[in-house]
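User: Is it possible to get a 3D structure for a protein together with its bound compound? The compound here is 6-hydroxymethylpterin-diphosphate. I've pasted both below.
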Amino acid sequence: MGVVNVTPDSFSDGGRWLDPAAAIAHGRELLDAGAAILDVGGESTRPGSAPVPEAEELRRVVPVLEALAPHARRAGGPGLSVDTSKAAVARAALGAGADLVNDVTALRGDPAMAGVVAEAGCHCCLMHMLGEPRTMQDDPRYDDVVSDVKAFLEERLAFAVAAGIAEERVWLDPGIGFGKTIDHNLELLRRLDELAALGRPLVVGTSRKGFLGRITGREVDDRLAGTIATNVLALERGATVFRVHDAGPVRDALQVAAATLRGSWTPPTTTS
Ligand code: HH2
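Assistant: Yes, that's possible. Here is the predicted structure of the complex:
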């Protein structure tokens, strides 16, 4: 899953793709590099970020989704995701061609969101977050981070199903970096198999995040190696969707890791 941030303030690439033409070109590059899904977002959720008004978020994402939709269709699953927690933005995005709603509030941010997803019959990704972006990194605490996140995801999955969303359309995400210390992130990644046991596709988003910088001493643009290390480990522990900014190198790493785990491989079908 390649990230297309149509924002002025995202933590790693804020402002680079705010112009719709630049965002569209970037999305197409990610697809060419091997991303199976694009995740288009118009609101940063980095620690300390402030909410974006609905009209502004719509203005950012809808033209980009419309332009990318014909290129992002995928047999066998969703190809175009909208990263939003607002029901009106999700509804417009689905109308523009999105087929997955990536809601970092796991249907808690907007009471109308579950109904929009249920009615559309689209896929959704439900992510764990402790608190809200403005304050989530202020001393997050858990009894046992993996058990707490697992219980939360189980409850949110049940909520989604009760709201009429088909269980087989729900993906789950531990929310790496969302109300978590470095140790919490590492423990979640180390014990990801416990979350994979929930039986739903598991999304992980470690790409370029702060804990990689704290461990390696690297700036945000220089965290690809750390991103790859965490995604390969996540694959081995049962993750199925890898939300990243650098689709090409991560795809190569995952292909080699998956072939090694399987004990078989096939040559690539494209040369891009
Ligand atoms: N991380 C970010 C945003 N959305 N969605 C899911 N499902 N999982 C994640 O880990 C996740 C996410 C943060 O990354 P980014 O979009 O690059 O930054 P920003 O929120 O500053 O735009």
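The chain is about 40% helix and 10% strand. The mean pLDDT is 96.
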